[in-house]
Design a protein that fits this description.
Blueprint: H1 5-10, H2 13-16, E1 19-20, E2 23-24, E3 35-39, H3 55-60, H4 62-68, E4 72-75, H5 103-115, E5 119-124, H6 134-140, E6 152-153, E7 156-157, E8 164-165, E9 179-182, E10 187-190, H7 205-220, E11 225-228, H8 269-288, E12 294-297, H9 303-310, E13 316-317, H10 321-324, H11 332-345, E14 353-355, H12 364-368, H13 373-382, E15 386-390, H14 410-413, H15 420-423, H16 461-465, H17 471-481, H18 485-489, E16 491-497, E17 501-507, E18 514-519, E19 525-527, E20 538-544, E21 555-557, E22 561-563, E23 568-572, H19 574-581
Parallel strand pairs: 3-4, 3-15, 4-5, 5-11, 11-12, 12-13, 14-15
Antiparallel strand pairs: 1-2, 6-10, 7-8, 9-10, 16-17, 17-18, 18-23, 19-22, 20-21, 20-23
């Protein structure tokens, strides 16, 4: 498969970055058209049989990323943690949790990645630490400089009485009050997530310097940038005003969505913080004469808020609109609107990005339907700029049913048996399905930290490699296509044809365009492409959704393209197909 890809790639070495003699060329643009791959380390690969994934496990599987056409991977938190939120409650920002390995293991991982020309991004969790962090313990005791490292507030008491309440009505993302009383300090501390995750105070200059030192520590260990977690929560309204009710009749009182979070999220000072980190990374890259150090920001919100991250230091302000605004049954017009909305709002000279899944959302194949998993993967990979893939989505993994008794995610555990399925993130976090051996090849241990999906016997990477047309081969084909100049220099056209077919065209002067047709309906349709797109009389199916029944290599007459229900096909010139596949 893809036998000519190596030959194709040689011609573009200057674009992708290369060595000339003994001198390394600095490549500032390496990130602009690549595929980013998220690794959830607890569930990727277990190297020591304890049922939990680890760094050595990741190192052992780096060849998978090369084979899949990945350019850079980012690792969800691996820092020491009591695991109240599975690593997002950090007790030491400059070390590795023993469950995942050691700093030496991390260094070995980075070194191996560099040998394979893979970039490494670390998850950075700056909004909060663990309540077991040394800084928090010293802040409780008001030991300088840690006294104001966290957001502390006095209780709100009724005059002349002993009746006291939290400082305001803010609610944690994980339900209940966002404030926790501390007897020793005699104040409440803010925790926008679980109570074991006290919020850090970015109005304190010492704390800001401390976090800059954390970033520098990891830069010196060879990381290529950071994915910054929970960015909208970094700083709060200075007056700590009560937030208004959302008046959503479907949300119980005391649940997060019962309020409109206009004072605890998206505050203007957030952008200044990101910009300061951008300046730090740029200065480091300049001094070290290294490639660009990337910032990726996780910030769900209205598009104007998200776009502001572009102009305040983020290379990749995550575009979550295929998650928040698309669903199973989305029409071609709705998908076109999502694409147009991003492209039309993006500031000039910035790079688009497309995200369809992550560790906080249900699996792509479960959200959109198993007959549309390839559809969304192809869509994400055909669009200009950066594609972001969550581990397992490249093979079409689906949600695993997790009972209330087996639920470990705090977002769900803080609810109840009636509501937990609306909040749990466990179903998308189960172990990666490598093969059909014990625990899907994830671990030698039959008991894993979350149960392996029972479908692993048939749905696994090894099985998909063994057949000609699979989710994995669709993914491989698309990442190979992205290495062509048309993806770096070509134009984009997005149209709706025949009522409910999305047509995406990537073209460059002097070459046959690449056309993706996405049938968003549950019925078959015939399309005359020549009426709207300048295409050849006949084109080749370069790849297609597995459920379509259309195999790669089929010749299509463009005046009468037959698209089965929910089918997606990628059309190229016969010559390009032959060049890439060696057919």
């Amino acid at each position: 498969m893809l036998s000519q890809l190596a030959i194709l790639s040689i011609g573009f070495a200057s674009v992708l970055g290369c060595r000339t003699g003994t001198e390394v060329q600095v490549n500032k643009d390496w990130w602009k058209t690549t595929v980013f791959y998220q690794i959830y380390p607890r569930s990727f690969k277990d190297s020591n049989g304890d049922g939990v994934g680890d760094l050595n496990g990741i190192t052992s599987k780096l060849d998978h990323m090369v084979d899949a056409g990945i350019g850079v991977f980012w690792i969800s938190p691996i820092y020491p943690s009591p695991m109240a939120d599975f690593g997002y409650d950090t007790s030491d920002f400059v070390n590795i949790d023993p469950e995942f390995g050691t700093l030496d293991d991390f260094d070995n991982l980075v070194a191996k990645a560099k040998e394979l020309n893979l970039k490494v991004i670390l998850d950075f969790v700056p909004n909060h630490s663990s309540d077991q962090h040394e800084w928090f313990q010293k802040s409780i005791r008001r030991e300088d400089p840690y006294t104001n490292y966290y957001v502390w507030r006095d209780a709100k008491c009724e005059s002349g009485t002993n009746i006291c309440q939290p400082p305001n009505n803010w609610i944690s993302v994980f339900q209940g009050s966002a404030w926790e009383w501390n007897d020793e300090r005699g104040q409440y501390y803010l925790h926008q997530f679980v109570k074991g995750q006290p919020d850090l105070n970015y109005r304190d200059e010492s704390l800001r310097k401390e976090m800059e030192n954390v970033l520098t520590f990891w830069l010196k260990r060879g990381v290529d940038g950071f994915r910054i977690n929970a960015v909208p929560y970094l700083i709060e309204d200075a007056e700590f005003k009560d937030e208004p009710l959302s008046n959503n009749p479907n949300v119980p009182q005391g649940y997060y969505d019962s309020l409109n979070h206009i004072y605890s999220m998206h505050q203007p000072g957030t952008y200044d913080i990101i910009q300061s980190w951008r300046d730090l990374l740029d200065k480091y890259a300049t001094e070290m004469k290294s490639d660009t150090k990337v910032i990726m920001t996780e910030g769900y919100g209205p598009i104007d808020f998200v776009m502001n991250y572009y102009t305040h230091g983020s290379n990749v302000p995550f575009n979550f609109f295929f998650i928040t605004d698309a669903r199973s049954g989305s029409t071609a017009e709705e998908l076109k609107s999502i694409i147009d909305n991003w492209m039309n709002n993006m500031p000039d000279n910035y790079v688009a990005n497309w995200v369809i899944g992550n560790h906080d959302q249900r699996r792509v194949a479960s959200r959109y339907g198993t007959n549309r998993e390839d559809q969304m993967s192809i869509l994400c990979l055909i669009l200009p700029g950066i594609a972001v893939t969550y581990n397992g989505d490249e093979i079409g993994m689906v949600d695993t049913e997790i009972s209330w008794a087996d639920t470990v995610d705090p977002a769900a555990c803080n609810t109840d048996p009636e509501h937990y399925e609306q909040y749990t993130r466990d179903p998308a976090r189960t172990p990666y399905q490598w093969d059909s051996t014990t625990s899907a090849g994830f671990s030698t241990n039959p008991t894993t930290w979350l149960p392996v999906n029972r479908n692993y016997i048939s749905l696994n990477l090894a099985a998909q490699k063994a057949v000609r047309h699979s989710h994995y081969h669709v993914y491989q084909a698309m990442t190979a296509l992205r290495k062509l100049p048309i993806f770096k220099q070509g134009s984009l056209s997005v149209e709706v044809l025949a009522g409910n077919v999305l047509a995406i065209t990537r073209s460059v002067t002097g070459a046959t365009p690449i056309v993706v047709l996405v049938n968003c309906s549950e019925s078959s349709v015939s399309i005359n492409l020549k009426n709207s797109i300048a295409v050849l009389d006949q084109m080749t199916v370069y790849t297609s959704s597995v459920s379509s029944g259309i195999t790669p290599g089929r010749i299509v007459t463009t005046s009468s393209v037959q698209l089965p229900a929910a089918a997606t096909i990628v059309l190229t010139s016969p010559r390009l197909y032959q060049l890439v596949y060696g057919a």
